[in-house]
Amino acid sequence: MSTADRAAHTLVIYRPSARADAALRQLAQAASESGGRITVLTLVVQESEERGCCDTRSVLWNDVSRGLAHEDLSKARLAVDDDQAVELELLPFSGRGAAKAVIREAVARGANEVVLADPRAVPLGRLELRRLHRNSPVPVRR
Asked: What is the pLDDT of residues 56-89, one digit of tens each?
C-alpha cells in the first residue's frame, strides 16, 4: 500500500497551551473531514532505573513525569471534544533523545507528517528542533 493509497496520518507533538489546543482542534477537524488519522504524543523524559536496587529517586521521578504527561493528554482530549478518533499516547525518551524518539515513532507509525502543535511549548530545545528537522524522513512542520 503506497502513501497515496492510505489516509494521511499526522503525528502531533503536544504540550498544553492555547495555541496548541487551537492547532489540535484544527488538525482533528481536517482529519475528520478527509478521513485522516491523528495521533497526539506528549513527550515524557524518563531516567534510567538501572542505578541499583535501593535508589528509588529515578523510579519516583519517572512516575511523576508520566503522571504530568497524562494530565497533558487529558487536556488534549478536552481540546478535541473527546473525539475518540484522535489517538493519545505518551512518548518516553531519555536524555537528549527527544528528536530520535519522535523520528522513530513517526516512521514506526507510518506518519505522513509531524506537527509541533505549539513549537514554543513542546519540550524541545533549539538543538533538538534542528535535529528533528534535519534528520526526519517525515516532514516536520510548526
From this structure: 788 888 899 999 999 999 999 999 998 888 999 9
Q: Which residues contact 22 (CB under 8 A, 6 or more apart)?
A: none
Which one-letter amino acid corresponds to residue 45? V
Which architecture, in CATH terms, is 11-141? 3-Layer(aba) Sandwich (3.40)
- What's the CA gap between 40 and 13, in Å, rounded? 6
Predicted model pTM:
0.87
Collect contacts of 94-101 with beta carbons under 8 A, ≥24 apart.
Answer: 94/45, 94/46, 94/47, 94/48, 96/127, 96/128, 98/43, 98/123, 98/124, 98/128, 98/132, 99/124, 99/128, 99/129, 99/131, 99/132, 99/135, 99/136, 100/131, 100/135, 101/43
* CA pair distance 57, 77, nearest whole angstrom: 30
Instruction: Tally the C-alpha atoms within 13 A of residue 65's C-alpha that lie toward its C-beta.
Output: 18
Question: Pairing between strand 140-141 and 9-13?
Answer: unpaired
Name the β-bridge partners of 86.
38
Sequence ranges of the domains in the chain: 11-141
